[in-house]
Specification:
- By secondary structure, this protein is an alpha+beta fold.
- The chain is built from 13 helices and 26 strands.
- The protein folds into two domains: 203 residues, Alpha-beta prism (UDP-n-acetylglucosamine1-carboxyvinyl-transferase, Chain); 210 residues, Enolpyruvate transferase domain (UDP-n-acetylglucosamine1-carboxyvinyl-transferase, Chain, Alpha-beta prism), CATH 3.65.10.
- The strands form seven sheets. A four-stranded mixed β-sheet has the order 24-25-1-26.
- Helix 1 runs parallel beside helix 7, helix 4 packs parallel to helix 6 and helix 6 packs parallel to helix 7.
- The model has no long low-confidence stretch (mean pLDDT 95).
Length: 422
């Protein structure tokens, strides 16, 4: 199994271009099932999760393939199967996003319930609640969701959950409602940029979605949608990860292609630490300016601080003198990276959903193990500043969400390489 080896201590300098957003690409791919014909999607990252979704499409009888480095063609003229089997769904929770469009277009869908997750329980009850609100019949049998409904009817549906709005449930309900009869109003809808991007894509297809970016989204059902050509937004989590990498190493880094307005909470937090962030046209510049100070952060649904940047931000705070507190309000159990960061010399303790970071530590290289996608990125960032050699194993997690990370970091001056292990 491959691992990543890093020799720490190098400053990152130069410019890095941000890839398309995986968390926008996957819902938009799923939404392409709503229209027969050829859909063309640009700026699609080459990631394991994208490949998994394509395998699900092939199982459905839908053709999907890359025609150049980041352009994906999907031909959903015919759908020959309405099921997404466990062997595929278990590899990626976002597979459940085919549920809404299959039900809307075909009147039926059979999708395996996603399995457990290392960052804590992530049930799909709000997905099912939303579909039932549109008069779908939903049954769970033998580990599968069986949904039927040849005549979905618009309704008012509340999607608030224990930890706030659900991005996945909001997306599934929007797609199902796009061709439902009448008007659907989603209350406590997710406001993430990826949800907005999906709505823009659907509207280009002929849907009538309004209110995206707010907690109240309205979908007026239409009879038919048509395939389109579309370019997805840049990946705000990848952009944030490189901003933090530049700050950590004391370098001067330029981020190209990112949306600064999607990163307001991170930029504000980094400025609070004492990092200089400058917006120059299409670039976001990051520089470590000297004295750094601790901050307290709570992860929240967008536009709050992203849970997907919590682990990477923790690395920065581990070297900032003083005590910082991170409260995880989205996935309270998302701290599997803490013991591994402590192996590298960080001093972090946990109190329930809060992490107490005693900063100002000098990290030293050691073997570590990644538990999930964002933990993988955090451990790599820690390796960039640790003295000596750090090896990060289970890097298959990284392949799910970061396109060519090793190559991008190498181009910026990092001493990092991926090694095949047997």
């Amino acid at each position: 199994m491959d691992y990543i080896e890093i020799i720490g201590g190098e400053r990152l300098e130069g410019e890095v271009t941000i890839s398309g957003a995986k968390n926008a690409a996957l819902p938009i791919m799923a939404a392409s099932l709503l229209a027969g014909g050829l859909t063309v999607i640009h700026r699609v990252p080459r990631l394991r999760d994208i490949d998994t979704m394509l395998r699900i499409f092939h199982h459905l009888g839908v053709r999907g393939e890359f025609v150049d480095k980041d352009t994906l063609e999907i031909d959903a003229t015919t759908i020959t199967d309405c099921s997404a089997p466990y062997d595929l769904v278990r590899k990626m929770r976002a597979s459940v996003l085919v549920l809404g469009p299959l039900l809307s277009r075909m009147g039926q869908a059979r999708v395996s319930i996603p399995g457990g997750c290392v960052i804590g329980p992530r049930p799909i009850d709000l997905h099912l609640k939303g579909l039932e609100g549109l008069s779908a019949r939903v049954e769970i049998e033998h580990g599968y969701v069986n949904a039927t409904g040849s005549d979905l009817v618009g309704a008012e549906v509340y999607l608030g959950g224990r930890y706030g709005s659900s991005v996945g449930a909001t997306i599934n309900l929007i797609m199902a409602a796009a061709r439902a009869r009448g008007t659907t109003t989603i209350i406590a809808a997710a406001c993430e940029p990826e949800v907005v991007d999906l709505c823009e894509f659907l509207n280009l297809m002929g849907a009538k979605v309004s209110g995206m970016g707010s907690p109240r989204i309205t979908v007026e059902g239409v009879d038919e949608l048509h395939p389109v050509e579309y370019t997805i937004i840049p990946d705000r989590i990848e952009a944030g990860t490189y901003l933090l990498a530049g700050a950590l190493t004391g370098g001067s880094l330029a981020i190209r292609g990112a949306r600064a307005d999607h990163l307001d909470s991170l930029i504000e937090a980094m400025r609070g630490v004492g990092i200089e962030i400058i917006r120059e046209g299409e670039l976001i510049m990051v520089r470590a300016t000297g004295d750094l100070k601790p901050v307290d952060i709570a992860t929240l649904p967008y536009p709050g601080f992203p849970t997907d940047l919590q682990a990477q931000m923790m690395v920065l705070l581990s070297i900032v003198p003083g005590i910082s507190v991170i409260i995880e309000k989205v996935y309270p159990e998302r701290f599997m990276h803490v013991p591994e960061l402590n192996r590298l010399g960080a001093r972090i303790s946990l109190e329930g959903a809060a992490a107490l970071v005693r900063g100002g530590r000098r990290l030293s290289g050691a073997p570590v193990m990644a538990s999930d996608l964002r933990a993988s990125a955090a451990l790599i960032l820690a390796g960039l500043i640790a003295e000596g050699k750090t090896t990060v194993r289970r890097v298959y997690h990284l392949d799910r969400g970061y396109e060519r990370m090793v190559e991008k970091l190498t181009a910026l001056g990092a001493r990092i390489k991926r090694i095949e292990d047997g």
